[in-house]
Every structure is written in C-alpha cells, then in structure tokens.
C-alpha cells in the first residue's frame, strides 16, 4: 500500500527524533527527510511529492510555519500540515490555512493517536502524482506488455506559430557559433532518490496538472516543476514550447518526412516521438535552416 511521504520540519533535533520514533510504527506513513527552515522544506518539496509536513510554528530563516502554509495555499496537490507548537497562539491561523492538526508539544497521552486518525482520513483523499516507470516496464498497452512499441504524439502547429518555431530551430542548428560543453542538469526525484538529468539527454517535457514528465530516450521522470517554469529554464538551451502541453529539445529533431496534404513532419528522437507539421510554403525555409 502506498505510504504518505512525510517531512519533519523543526529547528529542534530532539523534537524531530521524537517524531520519527512516534511515526515509525504508523504503517501508512514514511518519514522521508528532515528540514529546519521553511525555504529548505519548499526546496525539498520540489524534488519529492510529500503527503505530510510536520512543521514547527517558529522556524528560523525568515519564514514561519504559518507563512509556509500561506506559500502552499495555491497548490493543487499540497501536503497535509500538522503544526507543532508549545502554545495555542497560532492554532486559529493554522486551521484557517487548512491545517490537518495542531499539536501542543509534548503531546498529552493518546493525543498523537488523534493526529494519526486525521492523517488516515487525509490519505483517503490525497492523490499523489504517480511515479513514472521506465518505458520498458510500461504495461498500459495490453497489446504491448513489454513497452517495446514506439509511441507517437501528433501535435498541431498553427501557421502563425511556425515562423517562431523555424527561427528557434535555426538557432538550435546553427553550428557557426559553436556549442559550449553542456553541463547543466535537471534534478528529478524517483523512488526517494534525486536523479540529475543532463539537459542534452531530455527529448521533451510533458505537462501533467501542476507537475510535468521529463522524457529521455528510454525513461520518463516526474518533475514537481510546472511546464512554464521549465520552459523559462530550458529555453536558452534550445528547447521550444510547441504546444501548451509539450516542450521539445530542438537538438533532438531527427527526421523530416513528407506527409499527406502537402505538409512535412518533423519528428523527434526517442520511443515516444513528437510529430510537428510544417506547411509546404515554409519548407524552403526549413531546408535552408538544416542545410539541404
């Protein structure tokens, strides 16, 4: 049974240790990390889809636990918040921000059991974005249980967007300026590990609600970044937003094919390919871009 990934956020290591000891026997909770400040916790949330935050009200670093709850308020899939405090002063504000519970520390006998019950109820409603498996293990297609069949996504590319696409493609394929060594990497989380993917191994990025899937040649990884954030980050590295759901690495365009209707199709590399139509009236410019 999937467990709620849990982060302990408190400046006192003794309280974090006590929380670990208490939660160790809760079968549906997995403590997966500790943090001291709100900003450290928010960075960790970008890498791991946490389901629960046990968070102190008073945190160092310029942002309190209440202020962190305000940062999380706009997220669609936000973790449950269990506040830890030695006073009831901020309880009303915490519950107004959607707190699952507010614990006075140290808790009275039997009080933690009520918190666990509330988290159990939260778990029944919490939807964690599924961790993507490798394409080889993808059994969604009953006719292709080993995931060996190529998959193709066909996207419309309106004529008014083709000029900007061709300009971006020209910039990506312009060899006269040379290309510096690519060392930039994107951090993604999988099975509790942080994996660093070099930008030049990414074929395309696919939007999924508040998250995104990063596709390489043989795998896809879940990223907690929204597609717009990744577009801003990757655009200088020859990535182009070809669709509201797709961001493509133009260096991975591998094939040009003639298609019915006087169109030409650009295809990208990888087992799942993105096909982008280019109209006949722009094919001359396309050939010039790629040196044909």
TrEMBL record:
Species per Swiss-Prot/TrEMBL record: Pseudodesulfovibrio aespoeensis (strain ATCC 700646 / DSM 10631 / Aspo-2) (Desulfovibrio aespoeensis)
Gene3D superfamilies: 3.40.50.2300, LytTr DNA-binding domain (2.40.50.1020)
Pfam families found in the cross-reference section: LytTR (PF04397), Response_reg (PF00072)
The keyword GTP-binding is annotated on this UniProt entry: no
SUPFAM superfamilies: CheY-like
All residue ranges annotated as the Response regulatory domain in the record: 5-120
Name recorded for this polypeptide: LytTr DNA-binding region
GO terms of molecular function: DNA binding; phosphorelay response regulator activity
Domain HTH LytTR-type: 186-292
Keywords: DNA-binding
């Amino acid at each position: 049974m999937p467990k709620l990934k849990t982060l302990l956020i408190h400046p006192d290591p003794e309280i974090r240790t006590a929380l670990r000891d208490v939660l160790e026997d809760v079968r549906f909770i997995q403590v997966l990390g500790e943090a001291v400040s709100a900003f450290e916790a928010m960075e960790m949330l970008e890498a791991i889809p946490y389901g629960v935050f046990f968070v102190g009200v008073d945190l160092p670093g310029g942002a309190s636990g209440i202020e962190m709850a305000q940062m999380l308020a706009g997220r669609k899939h936000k973790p449950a918040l269990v506040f830890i405090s030695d006073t009831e002063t901020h309880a009303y504000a915490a519950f107004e921000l959607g707190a699952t519970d507010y614990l006075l520390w140290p808790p009275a006998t039997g009080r933690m059991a009520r918190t666990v019950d509330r988290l159990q109820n939260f778990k029944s409603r919490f939807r964690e974005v599924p961790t993507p498996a490798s394409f080889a293990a993808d059994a969604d297609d009953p006719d292709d249980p080993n995931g060996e069949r190529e998959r193709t996504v066909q996207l419309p590319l309106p004529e008014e967007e083709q000029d900007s696409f061709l300009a971006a493609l020209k910039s990506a394929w312009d060899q006269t300026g040379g290309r510096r060594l690519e060392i930039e990497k994107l951090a993604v989380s999988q099975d509790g590990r942080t994996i660093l993917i070099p930008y030049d191994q990414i074929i395309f990025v696919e939007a999924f609600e508040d998250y995104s899937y990063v596709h390489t040649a043989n795998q896809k990884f879940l990223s907690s970044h929204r597609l717009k954030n990744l577009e801003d980050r990757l655009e200088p590295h020859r990535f182009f937003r070809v669709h509201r759901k797709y961001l493509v690495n133009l260096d991975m365009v591998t094939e040009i094919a003639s298609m019915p209707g006087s169109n030409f199709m650009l295809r990208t590399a990888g087992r799942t390919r993105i096909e982008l139509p280019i109209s006949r009236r722009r094919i001359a410019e396309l050939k010039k871009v790629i040196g044909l």
